[in-house]
Automatic annotation (TrEMBL):
Region (Disordered): 264-291
InterPro entries documented for this protein: AAA+_ATPase (IPR003593), ABC_transporter-like_ATP-bd (IPR003439), ABC_transporter-like_CS (IPR017871), P-loop_NTPase (IPR027417)
Lineage, broadest ranks: Bacteria, Bacillati, Actinomycetota, Actinomycetes, Kitasatosporales
Residue stretches making up the ABC transporter domain: 5-241
Signal peptide: none
Gene Ontology MF, one: ATP binding
Key words, A-Z: ATP-binding, Nucleotide-binding, Transport
Protein name: ABC transporter ATP-binding protein
Length: 335
């Protein structure tokens, strides 16, 4: 099972430029979470801070009792082995075959024999659907295949926490749908804690158990997916509806005068948002262990959530309870 990640009061700047401040959230063990936000809001910086590649000025990131911000470097290095990181562009070595790219972490961080390395690498290549392409160079395959190779490499050390940095970038809608299903299938198979940074609304709507959003150097919200998907917070609503009207501008957030002018112009209200069902594992795979844990966790907090989210959660679980259960036909039934 994955590991809980607790983030407390995290603040990061580059010189005088504040990226985000006082970010506090918990990634529940084994669940899939998504972090949304307009371009330039520091989502990738947040991922690198979780794994200890960047040092925030304040706050803590607690994983199995180790603080990835303030603990000794040796402890941070050891804890980093619990992570698998899928980079935006795959970050593959151009002169190595896919097999050697995926094998690299095993050769670098373990003392396994080549026969064992081959077994593990080929298993991961099969999981991401790249059998037959292992001898190719990154330049000989499509961008979607490079991303899947990057994901296979992230999996070879059996991570308990997987971080995906904009896995959809550069992919068409069909490949993005395949990738979304692959992420859900992975969670069903290995029960890892997953955080996906994206601004793709299809992934956001169908993949995560939990969602958050970064904007104006703040964490706007983080919690069960229903909270964000039903939110009327102006920046969340604008982002989810893909509208020009709202706090997000082309280059940066809009000033008060622009927002006031938009309000005075009386933009048409957005249509009601519908929460689409979350993806389920592909046929033949086990159910996600995270689903039952999440249900217990969310129902324990449901009375503290906003009314719209509360209603959405209760409707979802009522529909689940009412869904027919498939049973095997009895002997002699003739079916």
């Amino acid at each position: 099972m994955g590991i809980e990640v607790v983030v407390e009061g995290l603040t990061k700047s580059f010189g005088r430029q504040s990226v985000w401040r006082d970010v506090t959230l918990t990634l529940p063990a084994g669940e899939v979470s998504v972090m949304l936000g307009p371009s330039g809001t520091g989502k990738t910086v947040f991922l690198k801070s979780l794994i200890g590649l960047l040092k925030p000025e304040k706050g803590r990131v607690l994983i199995n009792g180790v603080d990835m911000v303030n603990s000794p470097e040796r402890e941070i290095y050891e804890t980093r082995k619990l992570f698998g990181l899928m980079f935006q562009d795959g970050a593959l070595f151009g002169s190595m075959s896919l097999f050697d790219n995926i094998a690299f972490p095993l050769r670098e961080h373990t003392r396994k024999k080549e026969s064992e390395i081959r077994r593990i690498v080929m298993e991961r290549i099969e999981v991401v659907g790249l059998l037959g392409a292992e001898g190719k160079l990154p330049g000989e395959i499509s961008g979607g295949m490079r991303k899947r190779a990057g994901l296979a490499r992230a999996l070879v050390l059996d991570p308990q926490i997987i971080l995906c940095d904009e896995p959809d970038s550069g992919l068409d809608p069909v490949r993005t749908a395949y990738l979304s299903q692959l992420l859900i299938d992975l969670n069903a198979q290995i029960d890892a804690t997953m955080l996906i940074v994206t601004h793709n609304l299809d992934i956001a709507a169908t993949v995560p158990d939990n969602m958050g959003m970064l904007f104006r150097r703040e964490l706007v919200t983080f919690g069960p997916r229903e909270v964000l998907l039903t939110s009327e917070e102006p920046v969340v609503a604008q982002f989810l509806d893909g509208r020009r009207e709202g706090p997000i501008g082309m280059s940066e957030e809009k000033d008060a005068a622009t927002l006031a002018a938009e309000a005075g112009a009386g933009a048409a209200p957005a249509p009601p948002r519908r929460i689409v069902p979350q993806l389920e594992p592909s046929p033949g795979l086990p159910p996600r262990a995270a689903v039952a844990r999440r249900r217990r966790r969310v129902m324990a907090m449901v009375d503290q959530l906003p009314p719209a989210a509360r209603s959405a959660i209760r409707e979802t679980y009522a529909a689940d309870a009412a869904a027919p259960t498939l049973t095997a036909p009895s002997a002699g039934s003739g079916t």
